[in-house]
Write a structure and sequence with these properties.
By secondary structure, this protein is α/β, with parallel strands linked by helices. Helices cover 38% and strands 13% of the residues. The structure holds pyridoxal-5'-phosphate. Belongs to the DegT/DnrJ/EryC1 family.
């Protein structure tokens, strides 16, 4: 039986040509032609003041934590239902992730629980746009304004998605994207830090270039470059950026193809939701998502275990779980704290099954997945 893989990274356009061009140009380290093309594209698309391409979203989040000037004992509010990188970026600065529960409809941070988590040590709010569905940014930005907090969007999954007609990644002071091969637009490993408040640009340039003012040197503003602040190796190579640029050039079309697959699952499973067998995502109308994830929620955790087994072993469908909550993980208990109950986080993370979703899925594959889900027992 042929397996329907959970994810396949696709070549979408001129990746090979651009990589060859980068190699022939004899500039394959960072901050060359393709870094510049990708950054300009992202600045235009998101409407940001600047972009720093990074080797991963993890790196972009770590740069954000440095730019937010987090220190030992500072607190950052975030959902527990996220990837470790959101919290690690904070913990690496000696700061404390403060976890709050998520909304049942979008699986995003519950904005109504943020205010009660604020203390005199709170410095920032990190939001995660799960499955490319926007968090309630109007309410979140309003709270941040009132308490003078920095907003960082973990938009790892959010490229080509909007909240009230504005791109995800354009709301926070800073935002981070991922181009890891499991995302919609990929470069193997890859990421970008978007700067939406220009006061962060100068220090961003220095952190990006290992704590030096090399960006200013390249622009001819200083005649030699020097060590001026902390920093790290946050540049991707031109080979990575060449691959990424080819993907970005056709990113919108690739997203439309992905949305069509997402819709096919949605149409097929709506009747099953009506019978109460399972739940499916129903993004709010003001959140134009990007089809990043299609998940189903089993009625109970026990059903989820049986379903994963039947999908995989019986039918060859590579379906997977997603985030394991951070608040109760060993490092979450050690480095973070929870504010309030994590009822929705605990329940949803134990019931969620992600179905295969990628541009190599054939109509036959989609039918196999649908039929396999229809046959699952309740
Ligand atoms: C919400 C979130 N943030 C950050 C990351 C890390 O991304 P990367 O693998 O590009 O470092 C992921 C990875 O899946 C993620 O889901």
């Amino acid at each position: 039986m042929a397996v329907v893989p959970f994810n396949v990274a696709s070549v979408l356009g001129r990746e090979m040509e651009y990589i060859e061009d980068a190699i022939r140009s004899q500039h394959i380290s960072g901050n060359g032609k393709y870094t510049s093309l990708c950054s300009s594209y992202l600045v235009d698309h998101i409407g940001s003041s600047a972009c720093f391409l990074t080797p991963s979203c993890t790196d972009a989040l770590e740069m954000s934590a440095l730019l937010a000037d987090l220190h030992v004992g500072d607190e950052v509010i975030m959902p527990s239902y996220t990837f470790t990188s959101t919290a690690n970026a904070v913990v690496l600065r000696g700061a404390v992730p403060v976890f709050v529960d998520i909304r049942r409809d979008t699986l995003n941070i519950d904005e109504t629980l943020i205010e009660q988590a604020i203390t005199s040590r709170t410095k920032a709010i990190m939001v995660v746009h799960y499955a490319g569905v926007g968090c309630e940014m109007d309410a979140i930005l309003e709270i941040a304004r009132r308490y003078d907090l920095i907003v960082i969007e973990d938009a790892a999954q959010g490229l080509y998605a909007d909240y009230r007609g504005k791109p995800l990644g354009s709301f926070g002071h800073l935002s981070a994207f991922s181009f890891h091969e499991t995302k919609n637009i990929v470069s193997g490993e890859g990421g970008a830090l978007m700067i939406n408040d220009s006061k962060f640009i100068d220090r961003g340039e220095i952190l990006w270039e290992k704590g030096t003012n090399r960006v200013k040197y390249k622009r001819g503003i200083v005649n030699k470059y020097n060590w001026v602040d902390v920093g790290s190796s946050f540049l991707p190579s031109e080979i990575t950026s060449a691959f990424l640029y080819a993907q970005l050039e056709v990113g919108r079309q690739a997203t439309d193809q992905r949305l069509a697959l997402w819709q096919a699952y949605h149409d097929a499973f709506r009747p099953l939701q009506e019978t109460g067998k399972l739940s499916i995502p129903n993004p709010p109308d003001h959140c134009a998502h990007n089809g990043h994830i299609f998940y189903i929620l089993a009625p109970t955790a026990k059903h989820r275990e049986i379903w994963l087994d039947q999908l995989g072993v019986r039918d060859g469908i590579n379906a997977v779980i997603h985030y394991v909550p951070l608040h109760s993980a060993p490092a979450g208990l050690r480095f973070g704290r929870s504010c309030g109950e994590m009822t929705v986080t605990d329940e949803i993370s134990a019931r969620l099954v992600r179905l295969p979703l990628h541009l190599q899925l054939s109509p036959d594959d989609v039918s196999r997945v649908i039929q396999s889900v229809e046959r699952l027992p309740v």
